[in-house]
Design brief:
With 154 residues, the chain is an alpha+beta fold. The chain has one domain (7-153): Sandwich (Immunoglobulin-like). The chain has helices spanning 7-11, 19-25, 143-153; strands at 13-14, 39-43, 48-54, 63-68, 71-76, 98-104, 108-116, 119-126.
Length: 154
């Protein structure tokens, strides 16, 4: 019997609490080079999450973030540098474009984004509608219970 490493499933999902939702994502393949750019997914509160991506060399004008349905897409398009006189002898800082997609659970929304020190932070929050939150039902006992049942039957 083989054991399966499910850690790749946890890397691209935010807000899912059920294994079946994670398994549905296993069939999808991310666009671009896997692993670029590197990122972290953190849980910062009960219903708060943060995605941090290492986007060194990209300015905020070269990055775009789009949230559509249950998919968060982060794109980086490096502009060509025209008119530079310097010849690059070794390029260790990646200058390639990328597109990274994250599948979001229901009711997870983007709260904001910031770029500082080469790290792009995308803050997410899961806002469950009042109608879907658990509620407490009062249990009647004694004479009141029988009166309520009779009133409904009439």
């Amino acid at each position: 019997m083989r054991s399966f490493d499910l850690s790749p499933l946890y890397r691209s999902t935010v807000g899912f609490d059920r294994l079946f939702s994670l398994l549905d994502q296993a069939s999808g393949v991310e666009a671009g080079v896997p692993g670029y750019p590197p990122y972290n997914i953190e849980r910062t509160g009960e219903n708060d999450y943060r995605i941090t991506m290492a986007v060194a060399g990209f300015s905020d004008s070269e990055l775009s973030i789009e949230s559509r349905e249950n998919t968060l897409t982060v794109k980086g398009e490096k502009k060509t540098e025209e008119g530079r006189d310097a010849e690059v002898l070794y390029r260790g800082i990646a200058a390639r474009s990328f597109e990274r997609r994250f599948q979001l659970a229901d009711h997870v929304e983007v709260k904001g984004a910031s770029l500082e020190n080469g790290l792009l932070h995308v803050d997410l929050v899961r806002e469950i509608p009042e109608a879907m939150k658990p509620r407490t039902i009062a249990i009647a006992s004694g004479k009141n219970a029988s009166q309520q049942i009779e009133a409904k039957a009439a």
